[in-house]
Amino acid sequence: MTSARNIFAAAQAINADVERELGPPEEGVAPTSHFVIMKSLTYDTRSYIAQIAQQINGSYEKGWYDACAVMIRRLIETLIIETFEKHGVAHKIKGLGGDYLFLKDLITATLNETEWSPSRNLKAPLPKLKDVGDKSAHNRFFVAKRGDIQPLIADIRSVVQELLFQSGLKK
Fold this sequence. Notes:
mainly alpha
């Protein structure tokens, strides 16, 4: 009985050593659920869009809500830029140095855009989504909880879906 315990303990120690040495997979682990961004939304788009969505879902699934909120913010920022580029008006969201503006200014430009037609379903939730992402990224006293993300899931879907279509990344 003691030798079986010793073998089991040795196997566990070897497994822990291997995991520590190898680390997590290079491109992360796919989430087992898609509670925030449905896989069908980002399937067959650009790989970096699908990977950001995967990180959003994975961090939500693990309860890492600040990480989830920051990645939602990043996805929205990326999709706004993609949309302005698609419509040939990226100059509207660039500063004097040619760099893209911060998310606050990207949202303002989106709310005022006339070259393409952002719907009210896109415009209304953008400030709310930015707010939770900003708090998670910049407020040292704020720690996001499930209740900060879960009520926004329908808005997240609506915003992501519209921006994917408006940007031509989804047909």
